[in-house]
Amino acid sequence: MNFYNMFVAIATLFILGAVGYLIRKKDVLKDEANSNIPKLITEVTLPCLIISSMQIEYTWDKVADMGLMLLVGVVAFVIQYGFVALIPGIFGLADKHEKGIYQFMVMFQNSGFIGIPVLATIFGEEAIFFGAIYIIPYRVLIMTLGVKMMDSRIRKFNYKELLNPGMAATVIGLFLFFTQIKLTDFINQPLEIVGGLTTPLAMLFIGASMIDLKFEKIFVNKRMYIISFIRLLAIPIILLIVIKGFVTNEIARGVPVIIHAMPVATLCTIFAKEYDNNVDLASSGVFMTTLLSMVTIPIVATLLLMV
């Protein structure tokens, strides 16, 4: 991937986001319709995208890259958790609820809803295959460690929480990849068409959601600037510096770095509401990092090209 292609890819995301903002502002896209887009993406278009992207030829190189990326995931976890441990001291937090929300923001990025579409735009369909595999441990962690951060009460883990369309699509896609079962055109082409809606829908939703931002409230929280810097720049850049020496494959190196450059996971707000935590603080983190990621993702992508 060269700089021009990267620039066009990021510019495309910006334009889609701008269109989303305009159609919401003009009330072409109603609030109820916009609020249903995440469900449409996570339960329909993203699973289709994942399955269709895994219809690729089996090679030992790809299997080796899968193993290497899981190793990178361990490195990334250590980096992220290091920042998580520092957050209470940096902010001087005594309130356990606020501490949990800030730690969640640092630990969990929006890997699936925004991450996968961005990977597809920058690197192409092959990156979706690696991205879907890379975020499997993330899905487990967010339903265990993530819930623990948001809810300090002792709570029994329910494995059924991991059973979702995205995880099911990843399992099906891996099965098809390892068995080399090729879907017929009558199945695969509809999957590709529906899956192709993921990126435009995600960016339209993000742009449309900006219309409800109360900027005067979000940008007065000085802690959020530190969280945004750690989440959007510090973690992916440190990860890139650490892995650049032993990960030479462009996609295998780029996928983890771009994934960890994503804004705070939307589940931050959902969990805050579910576990009676500070919903306003959680929403501010999601919105602010999503907004700033429009600038920081091109920066991280450019650094990838320079390595």
Characterize the structure shown.
- The protein is mostly helical and about 300 residues long.
- It has one domain (about 5-200, about 215-305): Na+/H+ antiporter like fold (Up-down Bundle).
- The chain contains 15 helices and no strands.
What's a concise summary of this model?
It contains 15 helices and no strands. With 307 residues, the chain is an all-alpha fold.
What is the highest CATH level, the class?
A: Mainly Alpha
| CATH-scheme architecture | Up-down Bundle
Our Rg estimate from Cα atoms comes to 19 Å
- Percent helix, as a range, is over 70%
Counting helices, strands and paired strands, the structural category is mainly alpha
Average pLDDT value?
83
Instruction: Report the count of strand segments.
Output: 0
Question: How many strands, which pairing sense, and closed or not: the largest β-sheet?
Answer: none
- The share of residues in extended strands comes to under 5%
The number of domains: 1
Give the low-confidence spans.
none
The N- and C-terminal alpha carbons lie at a distance of 12 Å
Order of helices and strands: HHHHHHHHHHHHHHH
Shape: globular
Contiguous helical run count:
15
Q: What is the name of the CATH topology?
A: Na+/H+ antiporter like fold
